[in-house]
Sequence to fold (643 residues):
Amino acid sequence: MKEYRYKLGRITGVCPACGKRRFKYYVDSRTGRIIDPECGRCNREHSCGYHRSPRDAGIDGNTMSAFVSPARRKEPSHLPVPTFAKAPYCPLTQYLRGLFGKEPVERWCRLMGVDTFPDDPRKTIFWLQDRKGVNRSGKLMAYGDDGHRLHGKTDTGYLHKAFAIPDYDFEACFFGEHLAAQHPNHTIILVESEKSALMMNIQMELEGYIDRYICLATSGASNVRPDKSRMDDPWYRLNILKGRRVILLPDADMAESWDEAAKALRPYTSSVTVLDPRRPPFSLSGSQDVADYIAERATDNRYYETEYTETEMENINNTTAINNTESISNTADPTERYLIIKNANSWITDSMERPDPKPLWRNIWYENEVCCLFADTNVGKSILAVQIADEISQKRKVVYFDFEMTDKQFQMRYTDSDTGTPHAFSDNLFRAELSTDYNYRDIEGVINGIRSVARRCDSTTIIIDNLTWLCNRAETGEAAGEFMQLLIKLKRDYGFSILVLAHTPKSRGETALTIDRLAGSKRIANFMDAVFAIGISERDRASERYLIHLKSRSSAIEYTSRNVMLMKLAKEGSMLRMEHIGFTSEDTLITIDNTGDETRRKRMAEVEERLHQGQTYAQIQAEMHITPRLISEVNRRIKMPAA
Fold:
């Protein structure tokens, strides 16, 4: 990293322009001394904006215009997960109830984390909960009855400072960041103030846009400028923007500054757009922000419901006040930072705010699930998987990671052999394959590549074909478990819906399809949200197949062993597919029940020959797809003494 001689230090003094003690001096990194009492930047970016660099003062040398912190190596301090008041009663929420009504304001206060400071009811607590669920602290802001901030010396601050928690290692995050993590496909709108973010989300819900956008607060204009040295820091606030669509909506007097920030953000995001607040529809001026615009829009729809009922006030008075250092200090077991705890009713209430997952394919694979399709070699699982991808891509983007077929094999499979016409897939379907640089030992590297490609394609629906190629040790329980943990992390961190294809390496016991037939068996199946399989019909081994559903966490299992889906391999023009032809029982497909027919006699003769060659029961069963009972019958006949 480039070394800068002159940097903005942490020494604070009086600003030469506005006279406020909010001035950061430039210091010489070699001596640690202030280079000039007028060289520095005022933190009052809106009302002052004074900035004089060493270069402006005629001092030569490399200059860094902002203080750069080293990448964080440990988790920052955190506060216990708060219990939000049932009815926040600070002046800000009273004011917002008058604009939007009681129900949406209180619901969004719960969702974003807005509460009243027990020691000073004028102050609102904006809880800073990051994308990992860590509650960094709470920002305190005092408001008047008109919904505007109070600007006294003690009217702002942070909760950990208010309670004087010793040795608190604070690292700020965006307000509302946890909601952005829960909705990985939403476009992120960044505004400066917490009040603006809260009002923006309420207004977007009322106007029907909340299913596509989520608004966060930066808590300062300088916080949208990326620090390149920290972009790989897992605790750095701007990491939530990586690979996302971002809209910047600055205050009216900061438009030019945010234009510069947008240019620096572009390498890390999917797209960045800056909305000029001075132009319609906002038409803001001076130091106005988006909250002023929303308040004006909401005026015509006021409910004027600013008074609390006696029951609500009783609930407020019964709320446990967090007014002592002990209840909020860092004395909790540090291992609890990996857990989020709420009572059961809160889990249900909060989850009801999010839509139920929709089925991606039939009632087997659902959104935000890791699902497994397994079958023996050359049965047709890749054919069905591409067919599934083709169907889903009619409505959403899908990335098919093909780690088995070459591009030429894929082209030939989906080209009409008579006319040479290829199948026209949807533009929403993307295909990826391994490069020649693939290192089979670097499974985590491939998983990271899958994540990156999916996000670049703007897709959360991915199909991996197949597990054996991706993890050649997957048939061992330990390797399979490690691999599945990485997939589960993709699902939870990015909201991915994942379908994994796997083999049945060999059959043990009956030929009926069960989870035990899956390679890696229990270790893999235990992690899966859903499992289904394809089997071969003994009635027509060349083209008849059946599908059985073996595990589900989101719906009742419809395709049981007594009601398997019967399918037939068919090529319609250029599309090779599994055609659904009915339902039947699995028993009728995996056994030959006519003891006197020619087919059975031929089978028994082949089994006898294989036994003479020294093949084991398992080898014969796997290669011929027959029951052990038939093999035992032939073996007994061979060993029976002649009459």
Remarks:
- The chain has a mean pLDDT of 80.
